[in-house]
Amino acid sequence: MKPLKYFLMAACVLSLTACGQEELNNQRMAKGCEAAVRLVLDKPKYDRKLAHVRSVSFGTSDGFKLVKLTVNTIEKETDFELDEDEVYNCKFDETSSFGGLVWNAHLVSLKVDEDAYGLENGQIIGNLNDHLKLMNTVENAMK
Question: In this structure, which of 3, 28, 43, 133 has its CB flanked by the most CB atoms within 10 Å?
Answer without folding.
Answer: 28
